[in-house]
């Protein structure tokens, strides 16, 4: 495992985003403004990516990180579908996720590192993670206003992915030109999707006002 300062800080931001969301769900007893469809997509991402968890013990760090993301993604879906379902606005969360899942599945079958079940599912998870945030952003645009805790959750999630781009550059120059073009292209697409959100988030902090997205 290659763990450099950029990757470590990116992982910290990823952990922070999940903890912020869990804090909202558990302490706030509400999932308002949170897209269940995005959370279900993330659950699919981690299930497909970490099928090797029971037998592929790379390192204590990676094992614990994989276990954390897999378990928390399932727990978040459980809370939103179970104890907190009365606070979930299904009418606003209306993004058609089939338009994300189907293209990602087709791409994974065509463009992958090896045509094996595990590699195809892993590649599918990479493609799907790149666009999984779209239902969440679509929900926020429909409602307009973004609560403080929701904005920080999404900002940490986007910042983690942005730092991973720097991590790949670091690894390219420090690991003899290591390349993973599928991961890189998906990461660039994912970061680009966050750019509009970053603009309004930074603007809201600069002017010290509640964040709003154009409808």
Automatic annotation (TrEMBL):
The keyword Transport applies. It is a multi-pass membrane protein. Pfam families: ER_lumen_recept. One of its GO terms (cellular component) is endoplasmic reticulum membrane. PROSITE patterns: ER_LUMEN_RECEPTOR_1, ER_LUMEN_RECEPTOR_2. The chain crosses the membrane at residues 61-82, 94-114, 120-140, 152-170, 182-202. It comes from Planoprotostelium fungivorum. One of its GO terms (molecular function) is ER retention sequence binding. Keywords: Endoplasmic reticulum, ER-Golgi transport, Membrane, Protein transport, Receptor, Signal, Transmembrane, Transmembrane helix, Transport. Belongs to the ERD2 family. InterPro entries: ER_ret_rcpt. This is ER lumen protein-retaining receptor. GO terms for biological process: protein retention in ER lumen; protein transport; vesicle-mediated transport. It is found in: Endoplasmic reticulum membrane. Residues 1-27 form the signal peptide.
């Amino acid at each position: 495992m290659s763990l450099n300062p950029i990757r470590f800080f990116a992982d910290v931001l990823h952990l922070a985003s999940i903890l912020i969301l869990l804090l909202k769900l558990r302490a706030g007893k509400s999932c308002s403004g949170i897209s269940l469809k995005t959370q279900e997509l993330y659950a699919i991402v981690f299930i497909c990516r970490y099928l090797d968890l029971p037998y592929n013990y790379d390192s204590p760090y990676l094992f614990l990180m994989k276990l954390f993301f897999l378990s928390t993604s399932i727990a978040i879906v459980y809370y939103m579908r179970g104890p907190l379902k009365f606070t979930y606005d299904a009418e606003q969360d209306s993004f058609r996720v089939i338009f994300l899942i189907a293209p990602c599945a087709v791409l994974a079958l065509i463009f992958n590192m090896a045509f094996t079940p595990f590699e195809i599912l892993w590649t599918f998870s990479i493609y799907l993670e790149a666009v999984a945030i779209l239902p969440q952003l679509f929900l926020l645009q429909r409602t307009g206003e973004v609560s403080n805790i929701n904005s920080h959750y999404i900002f940490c999630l986007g910042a983690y992915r942005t730092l991973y781009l720097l991590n790949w550059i670091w690894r390219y120059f420090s690991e003899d030109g290591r390349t993973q073009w599928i991961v890189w292209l998906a990461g660039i697409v994912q970061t680009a999707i966050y750019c509009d959100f970053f603009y309004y988030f930074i603007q809201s902090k600069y002017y010290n006002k509640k964040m709003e997205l154009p409808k």
